[in-house]
Amino acid sequence: MQHARLNLPIPGANLNSARKFSGGRGGVNFAVAGSTALPAEVLSSKNIMNIVTNESLSTQLEWMFSYFNTTCSKDCAKEINSSLFMVGEIGGNDYNYAFMFSKTTEETKALVPGVVKAIKDAVEKVIGYGARRVVVPGNFPIGCFPVYLSQFEPNDADAYDEFHCLKELNSFASYHNELLKQTVDELKKNYPDVIIVYGDYYKAFMSIYQNAQSLGFDTKTIQKACCGTGGDHNFSLWRMCGALGVPVCPNPDQHISWDGIHLTQKAYQHMAEWLINDIFPKLQCSA
């Protein structure tokens, strides 16, 4: 939706042979659903399993470099120089799987420096390939998501903030984001000729919560999945969206959460608008 407003095509998936990267108007998406920042073997050594895929950030970088070396046009260097690179959001799944395998917040917190270093290394590799504008997004306030609200249900009212989000988990997300912001500042100093911008997904998401009613969301279902079933948050890990018999709400545009993990298109639209307004002026793009 935001691509249309900006008169830009949606980046094509790397493995789709029909995708294009030409004249700076196309774009390629190297993301892998369910992937992590840390390699699967690193997580496995900590008894954390990626139940979705064995691919990680390193695979996505390998695909990108392979694409530039084999598929990109003869003007590839010029196109890379004038393109915008999004490195992330990545790292959230590392933490999702850790919590899923019953790691405590403190145990999961120990992953953060390694995750942030993996992101830093990725940014440096992208810059080494010629990128001159890079956005590095942070993590969401995961304590507001149905998947976590249904998994961690403390009876202590003090465990929740004014939006009924879990303070401990949002504090954890903020820890990741602060470390990432410090890393972005270091990268800016090390690469003064490259524009590197932090993408504040946390604030973008919270702007929806803070303005939910005026944005048209039903405040009674703000923490309920549109597609899901079970419990106070309409979410169950054992009967997730897409499973046989799991219902879908009739009014997804009034919901923030689509399936307990991802947002609805309406929520993503508002996030995108916030992020574009915040990030675009910092990119110093010429008309």
From TrEMBL:
Does the UniProt entry include the keyword Secreted?
no
Q: Which residues form the signal peptide?
A: none
The record's GO molecular-function terms, alphabetically, read: hydrolase activity, acting on ester bonds
A Pfam family matched in the record: Lipase_GDSL
InterPro entries recorded: GDSL, SGNH_hydro_sf
Q: Which UniProt keywords apply?
A: Glycoprotein
Transmembrane spans: none
The UniProt entry's sequence similarity note says: Belongs to the 'GDSL' lipolytic enzyme family.
Question: Could you tell me what this protein is called?
Answer: GDSL esterase/lipase At5g03980-like
Upper classification of the source organism reads: Eukaryota, Viridiplantae, Streptophyta, Embryophyta, Tracheophyta
Q: Which gene encodes it?
A: LOC105134232
